[in-house]
Amino acid sequence: MIARVWRGWTEPADANEYEAFVTETVFPDAKAEIDDLQSFEVLRREAGDEVEFVTIARFASWDAIEAFAGADYETAHVPERAERLLARYEETVAHYEVRA
């Protein structure tokens, strides 16, 4: 299994809308379309004058990651609506082999 880990930050006023979009639309839609998207987590914390989000999506294969993010899968996959809500975000994604 491979974990795809990414971070983005919102203004406090946009945090609830961003969280709802990611947890109710982005990942559920992807899970419905990609059999090998095993699970996802959305972590949230207050970080000074911003709200930080960490997403962790677990995929069964590299092919599933490519189905989610495209051929350039190390580049962040940020839907247009999410991009409007984010103050800033990591442009690349880290992938880890899940060992335990």
Helix-strand layout with pairing:
Blueprint: E1 2-10, H1 12-33, E2 37-47, E3 50-59, H2 62-69, H3 80-85, E4 86-89, E5 94-97
Antiparallel strand pairs: 1-3, 1-4, 1-5, 2-3
Looking at this protein, list some descriptive labels.
100 residues, alpha+beta, Alpha-Beta Plaits, five-stranded antiparallel sheet, 3 helices, 36% helix, globular
The biggest beta sheet reads: 5 strands, antiparallel
Structural class: alpha+beta
What name is given to the CATH topology? Alpha-Beta Plaits
Q: Can you identify the CATH class?
A: Alpha Beta
Would you identify the CATH architecture?
Answer: 2-Layer Sandwich
Average residue-wise pLDDT: 95
Unreliable stretches = none
Using only C-alpha atoms, the radius of gyration works out to 13 Å
Bulk shape: globular
Count of DSSP H/I helices: 3
Total domain count: 1
Note the gap between the termini.
Answer: 10 Å
What is the beta-strand fraction?
35-45%
Q: How would you describe the overall organization of this protein?
A:
- This protein has a single domain, classed as Alpha-Beta Plaits, CATH 3.30.70.
- The protein has 3 helices and 5 strands; from the N terminus they run E-H-E-E-H-H-E-E.
- Strands 1, 2, 3, 4 and 5 form a 5-stranded antiparallel β-sheet that branches.
- The protein has helices at residues 12-33, 62-69, 80-85, and strands at residues 2-10, 37-47, 50-59, 86-89, 94-97.
- With 100 residues, the protein is of the alpha+beta class.
- It starts with a strand and ends with a strand.
- Helices cover 36% and strands 38% of the residues.
